[in-house]
């Protein structure tokens, strides 16, 4: 199973680590949802893959816990300030998400239910169809880690790895995946996952 960690690092991530989705805490969910409501990124209420379009915290927990395996990747860059360098930060976050998509495609060769989370909201469409129509690209969307109510930094440190100092910016991607032999109930639940 070490092959996905090795593959992630060969794709340019600085580190990668497996984790058990069943052991992830949603302790910070309310804090993260409040941060989303503050709308510093300008995406709250405008996209299917950001709150409230993603559904309730309970829905996110149920979906997350329905997966058997998780892998988390870290990419380090020079210091970036998302507030002061918003355009550059979004560009880097989009690149990191693309790296995550490439790894997702490799995992899909062995697992038929693979879910990708990244560092920012979706950038696929110039204008999202939310809330008028369904998502146009449910299989391509990268949902926000924090929008999924996951404290990415707490999760990273729970694996035994540490974050860099202030001289680096750390960006993350999470991929969840299941064995092909999941129950019908689990498969139905995860169809809701794609917004």
Give the helix proportion (percent range): 25-40%
How many individual domains?
Answer: 1
DSSP helical segment count:
6
Structural class by helix and strand composition: alpha+beta
The Cα radius of gyration reads 16 Å
Q: What is the straight-line distance between the termini?
A: 29 Å
Shape: globular
Instruction: Let me know the average pLDDT.
Output: 88
Task: Name the quaternary structure.
Answer: single chain
Task: Characterize the biggest β-sheet.
Answer: 5 strands, mixed
| Number of beta strands | 5
Side by side, the strands of the main sheet go 1-2-5-3-4
Q: pLDDT under 50 segments (min length 5)?
A: none
Strand content: 15-25%
| N-to-C series of helices and strands | HEHHEHEEHEH
Structure description:
With 195 residues, the protein is α+β, with helices and mostly antiparallel strands. It has one domain (3-194). The chain is 33% helix and 16% strand. The chain has six helices and five strands. It has helices at residues 3-10, 29-38, 57-65, 86-107, 152-158, 184-191, and strands spanning 15-19, 69-77, 113-118, 143-144, 169-178. It has a five-stranded mixed β-sheet, covered by helices on one side. The longest helix is centred in the middle third of the chain and has 22 residues, at 86-107. The two termini are 29 Å apart. The mean pLDDT is 88.
């Amino acid at each position: 199973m070490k092959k996905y960690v090795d593959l992630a690092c060969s794709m340019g991530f600085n580190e990668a680590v497996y984790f058990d989705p069943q052991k992830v805490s949603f302790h910070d969910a309310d804090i993260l949802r409040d941060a989303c409501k503050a709308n510093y990124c300008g995406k709250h209420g405008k996209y299917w893959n950001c709150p409230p379009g993603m559904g309730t915290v309970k829905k996110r927990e149920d979906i997350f816990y329905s997966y058997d395996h998780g892998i988390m990747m870290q990419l380090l860059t020079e210091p970036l300030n998302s507030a002061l360098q918003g355009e550059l930060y979004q560009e880097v976050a989009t690149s990191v998400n693309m790296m995550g998509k490439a790894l997702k495609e490799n995992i899909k060769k062995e697992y038929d239910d693979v879910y990708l989370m990244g560092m920012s909201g979706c950038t696929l469409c110039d204008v999202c169809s939310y809330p008028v129509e369904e998502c146009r690209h449910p299989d391509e969307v990268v949902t926000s880690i924090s929008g999924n109510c996951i404290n990415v930094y707490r999760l990273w440190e729970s694996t035994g790895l540490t974050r860099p100092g202030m001289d680096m910016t750390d960006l993350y991607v999470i991929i969840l995946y299941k064995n092909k032999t999941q129950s019908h109930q689990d498969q139905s639940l995860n169809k809701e996952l794609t917004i």
